[in-house]
Amino acid sequence: MKAPIFIYYQLDNYYQNHRRYVKSRSDQQLLHGQEYSHTSACEPEESSNGLPIVPCGLIAWSMFNDTFTFARESAKLKVSRSNIAWKSDREHKFGKDVYPFNFQNGSLIGGAKLDPKVPLSDQEDFIVWMRAAALLSFRKLYGRIEEDLEPGNVVVVNLMNNYNTYSFSGQKKLILSTSSWLGGRNDFLGITYLVVGASSIVISIIFMLLHLKNPRPYGDNSWNKKSLSS
Question: Which residue windows are transmembrane per the record (predicted)?
Answer without folding.
Answer: 188-210
